[in-house]
Amino acid sequence: MTETFAPKGVLETVRAVAAGTLDPRASLAAAAARARACEPAVGAFTYLADLGAAPDPGAGPLAGVAVGVKDVIDTADMPTTYGSPIYADHVPAADAAVVKRLKALAAVPIGKTQSTEFAWRHPAGTRNPWNAGHTPGGSSSGSAAAVACGAVAVALGTQTFGSVLRPAAYCGVVGLKASFGAVPRAGVHPLALSLDHVGLFTRSVDDATYVLALIAEGDGARAFPPFQVPLDGLAPFPKPRIGLLMGPEWALLEPSQREVLRHAAGMLADAGAVVEEISLPAAFQRLVEIGTTICHAEGAFHLGPLADRFPDKASDRLKALAAAGRAVPAPAYVAARQDQAALRAALPGALAGFDVLLTAPAYGEAPETLDNTGDPALCVPWTTIGVPAIAVPAGVGPKGLPLGIQLVAPFGEDLKLLRVAKAAEMALGRPLGIAPVA
Fold first, then answer.
1. Which residues, including other chains, have CB under 8 Å from residue 166's CB and lie 6 or more apart?
2. pLDDT tens-digit readout, 34-88
3. Most C-beta atoms within 10 A of its C-beta, which of 90, 344, 369, 376?
4. Is residue 313 part of a domain?
């Protein structure tokens, strides 16, 4: 049996295991070794499992695939601190539903990845694998960094504002947030239940699609239409119609981010897509305000009591969230929820004639700071209305840090979005490999 310990993607691992050229246990041990080698430079993990005597994970569609699990997602065999000293020694009684599902598929979580405090804004200390002085983004800081440096093939994150797509863009990996409720959230610590999503980080669109197809069981009463992904990858969407969104935020983008968007639009057009500029109705400009109202109110409900009970262990950012949420009048919260539903329903009409939106996931390269995780504003509208969105690496900025694009589709059109993203990835190539941190 021939084995190679270079970091592999999900489908690359699955194909090699199926062909008998890669032992699943050797694959997992190699991932754990890579994770440990990267840790001094990156600090992506709060906990790494000892896989020295790991049992055979058994057969399954994800055999040999190493997974990183964000530290707000429960794991019964690993500590789960929710990014807070309040839960420093906490080990949950049961796995979160998504972790249980991954294990049933023969994937193996090798560690817990750093999260900001309760997935809010207090940084965890993880560094960007491409430049240690820059943030990796957040709140799924460790998950993005772990995939970027090749420690794991896939990592779980969560997104309430921009906590999957923004760090994916900053770290040069694919970040996927499926339609609201597609991935079960039982066992995930809530920040704002009307906004919280479980998302994925991988190094290719095919990998994200393959994993999503296996774990998207629906959340409660919300069914998710099943689909399958062949082992040779997803078929790209033929000749998509793409709306290039150039709203008021266009002027706020760094010049390199604007250039990456224009370059991506041009490459997609050269590959056969129809790309035209689009504007959305004025009501969509209120989505950041609407999402903020919901997040503050629900964040105060879920996290305010913890900040009150443990003031010495709660950050000032968490206390500020509780205060802001408690100041939201009940009628304003109810109105925000109504607007949320109305604008989700209105997006297909606003996109009439287009398959997806093309926009930016962040204002530019990852900021040179570890004191905050960057501005999520460009992701907030799509999280607020719970529609599927994906970040795809698209270039490198003047500081040598990754830049990405964001593609967005109406609610429930996840597979179409992913096929368009595959077309975009093929047109753009893969501008970044694995961050050379170890």
1. 137, 138, 175, 361, 362, 373, 374, 376, 378, 379, 391
2. 999 999 999 999 999 987 665 677 889 999 999 999 999 999 999 999 999 999 9
3. 376
4. no
Average of per-residue pLDDT values in the chain: 95
Active site residue: 115, 143, 163, 179, which one? 163
Residues 6+ apart with CB under 8 A from 293: 328, 332, 333, 336
In this structure, are residues 297 and 328 in contact, taking their beta carbons and an 8 Å threshold? Answer: yes
Band (1; pLDDT cuts 50, 70, 90): very low
Helix (H, G, I), strand (E, B) or coil at 86: helix
Domain interval for residue 181: 10-281+348-428
Give the separation between CA 399 and CA 166, rounded to whole angstroms: 17
Say how far apart CA 25 and CA 388 lie, in whole Å. 34
- CATH of residue 102: 3.90.1300.10
Question: Residue 102 domain-assigned?
Answer: yes
Mean pLDDT on 221-228: 73
Q: Which residues, listed in sequence order, are joined to residue 155 by a DSSP beta bridge?
A: 68, 201
Q: Which residues contact 7 (CB under 8 A, 6 or more apart)?
A: 30, 31, 34, 150, 151, 153, 434
Helical spans, DSSP H, in 245-358? 255-270, 287-309, 316-326, 330-350
DSSP per residue, 348-381? HHHTTT-SEEEE-SSSSSPPS-SS-----TTTHH
Q: Distance (Å, rounded) from C-alpha 339 to C-alpha 426?
A: 37
Using pLDDT thresholds of 50, 70 and 90, give the confidence band for residue 347: very high
The one catalytic residue among 115, 139, 204, 315: 139
Residue 110's φ and ψ, nearest 5 degrees, are -100, -5
The CA-atom distances, in angstroms, between 203 and each of 14, 206, 255, 299, 394 are 15, 9, 25, 31, 12
264 found inside a domain: yes
Phi, psi of 242 (to 5 degrees): -120, 125
Give residue 94's pLDDT: 98
Average pLDDT estimate for 102-115: 97
Q: Which residue has the higher pLDDT, 6 or 422?
A: 422
Task: Establish if 423 belongs to a structural domain.
Answer: yes
CA dihedral 381, 385, 391, 395 (to 10 degrees): -20
70 tagged catalytic: yes
- Secondary structure class of 260 (helix, strand, coil): helix
Task: Decide if pLDDT at 4 tops 50.
Answer: no
Residue-wise pLDDT for 263-292, tens only, equals: 999 999 999 999 999 999 999 999 999 999
